[in-house]
Design a protein that fits this description.
The chain has helices spanning 10-16, 31-35, 53-59, 76-90, 106-112, and strands spanning 5-8, 22-26, 42-43, 65-69, 99-103. By secondary structure, it is of the alpha/beta class. It starts with a strand and ends in an 18-residue tail after the last helix. Keywords: Oxidoreductase.
């Protein structure tokens, strides 16, 4: 079970994001639809995140690393990461999740660094190869 929440840089995530054991969780709200998103990311808006944790757990079954982000990863991303860690501790659910990470500088930093951004409207996003 994940013991603590750590941060991951955009460069680290760029290298790791295609691994089958990683899920990227975008907790931004409406801005995802017009700002784009990290290819292959899952969308769980922060305002309803707590209500959808059990759905998230089903969606990420088999993943051992979850990377959370919002626009800047200063409030919503870290808050949702902590909520998931608390949930796992409360229900004593292992779920195989070893690492809960937060993307440094969030989506804005990811995009500003010239990293791939998808603007599809697929739910979930299927664009892993950008």
């Amino acid at each position: 079970m994940a013991r603590s929440i750590s941060y991951i840089t955009g460069a680290q995530l760029l290298t790791l994001r295609r691994r089958p054991n990683i899920a990227i969780i975008d907790v931004r709200d409406e801005e995802r639809s017009y700002d784009g998103h990290i290819p292959g990311s899952l969308h769980y808006a922060s305002d309803s995140f707590s209500d959808k944790i059990s759905d998230l757990m089903q969606t990420v079954k088999g993943k051992d690393t979850l990377v959370f982000h919002c626009a800047l990863s200063q409030v919503r991303g870290p808050t949702c990461a902590r909520r998931l860690a608390s949930y796992l501790k409360e229900v004593k659910e292992d779920a195989g999740i070893m690492d809960i990470l937060v993307l440094e500088r969030g989506f804005n930093g990811w995009e500003a660094s010239g990293r791939p951004v998808c603007r599809c409207t697929d739910k979930p996003c299927k664009q892993h190869d950008l």
